[in-house]
Amino acid sequence: MVQISGNRLRSLREGQSLTQLYLATAVGVTTETISRWERQESPTLKEENAIKLADVLAVALQDLLDLAEEVQEVESSSVVSAGFFKNKKTIVIALAALFCGAIALVFMNFGGGQVASFSAKRIVPEHSAPGHVFPVLIEVELATTDTISLLLKEELPLGCSVLHSVPQATTVDHGFVKWVARDVSGLKRFSYLASCTSVAKNNELLFFQGSLLVRQARRQEVSIAGRSRLILSDFHWADSDKNNVIDDEELLAVYDDFDLVKGLNIDVEEVESIWMGSGYTWNTKELAFEIIP
After folding, report:
1. For domain 2-110, which architecture applies?
2. Domain residue spans in the chain?
3. Residue, of 202 and 7, whose pLDDT is higher
4. pTM: predicted TM-score of the whole model, two decimal places
5. Could you tell me which residue, 114 or 151, shows the higher pLDDT?
6. Greatest CA separation found in the chain?
7. Which residue among 222, 252, 268, 286 sits deepest, i.e. has the most Cβ atoms within 10 Å of its Cβ?
8. Cis omega before residue 43 (within 30°)?
């Protein structure tokens, strides 16, 4: 357990234009917990949570501890006691730490490179059979040589659930899947396997929506582009033209779009089996595809 400075936490958060909700999502706690930490109502917390806070704020853990609070009190005090002069070395060290922390904060807010451009694109099949598992890929591209932190949030349609994610999502709860990533640059892929309720009506249209939040010189947020809808129908998600056959181009599209994501565990064997056969049908009772030899 460690004891942090609530004033220091609030100052760092506000200085970087971050919300309590952002910190809560990144650390894995509630916004009320963040609020209590800042109000000093619960200043003692698990060391792992304190480390997560420091990581998200891009500061050393030491900068969140009570030492920072004590230094601020020494600096703002207008009355100097006799004991102050008896411990000059400690005070000099403390003031030096405060000065370094202030310089670091200024650099985080105004220094460093600016993200020239960034984007997030969703790749999702046009359709999927009700109750069948399908993949979703989100490609995040950062046109910068610097490494930054990001928060990627995806909201699934009602009745859909996440079964697996790569990299493992920070949060999967109530139709949301969220990732918090540090030291990211260039192209980064986030993916998950999902399934939508088997009791949904056939040809029902489902909508996905999400956002990408990055923080470097300043806070910036964009919506996830790409396909945002999926139709529930009795066709395999890889059968893009809905003719009950997976042809060569459709098989290659699966490899190009999703097989690059290691660990996603797409049922490629099922796709290849349908491709090698002469067709398939959807068994609504068994919620499975039957391959025609």
Report:
1. Orthogonal Bundle (1.10)
2. 2-110, 118-292
3. 7
4. 0.63
5. 151
6. 93
7. 268
8. no
